[in-house]
Fold Galactosyl transferase GMA12/MNN10 family-domain-containing protein.
Amino acid sequence: MHFALPPRKTSNPPPYLPRSNRLPTLRRSRLKLIAITGLFFLTVIYLLTRGNGHPKLKKRMPTGNPPVVLVTVFDEAKYGKGYLDAIKENRIQYAEKHGYQTFFANIGDYDLKGAPGSWTKVVAMRHALTKYPECHFLWYLDQNAFVMNPQLKIEDHIMKTAKLTDLMKKDHSVVPPDSIIKTFAHLTGQDVDFVLTQDKEGLSVGSFIVRNGEWGEFFLDTWFDPIYRSYNFQKAEAHALEHIVQWHPTILARLAIIDQRLLNSYSQGNKGDQYRDGDIAVRLVDCVSAGAQACETESQRFTQQWRTSFGKF
């Protein structure tokens, strides 16, 4: 059997040809073009921000009209009309007393791409920002809760800078009891755009406040990211939030955790701090797992109370 041999190298190679100097010339031309373009954009940025003695451009601040939007998501297929009407009446009366607005959404209003319906709260908050772009704050409050103290205004009770500086828990474990990720110790109220509480199980997403602004939009968009919605977290958006704040310093740096009774008291004390007269709101957390009828039954002892309080204010 014969095998083909590789061709021999010629004994008379072609004469050496020097490399063309065209490539370096082209390279120099491109570098020059890039440099000129970069200088142009830097000049434009300078003129827009500092040139001719003009001050830096500042982002537009909301006017505060309305000061607060109270957001609630309803499950009309699960709860009776009488119960839901009482919740809506509670929100509307409280909002009217302080010049706030309400934003009501329903489970099923948005395409969650198969995610649990509890994610509706996040997209509803983002929708409310679009509808009320001039508000200062959004307060999300679950459908299993009542505003109980009509005298307390969110912007004074919690979100005033000096007040929030005193209320926020610093160097505090984000997820109880002993998370190694803790809130920043150096933050003040003016640094905070997201306020919530904890209960005995973790971060509580049944009542929380988001400040309107670029960061607030970024935060809600991040929380609602399809990656988190598609991941099988045991408690859906609640556990997704715990993941986000522990792994993303950009979120943690704008977060404040405050005492539960300031924003999110529970009707029973087995899962968190129990409601006392004077607290701003009460949530009927135990009734949720027991069924819709249980929530309607438990709500009756608070309905007359808040109506009486609102009548005095």
Q: What stands out?
A: Residues 1-23, 38-58 have pLDDT under 50 and may be disordered.
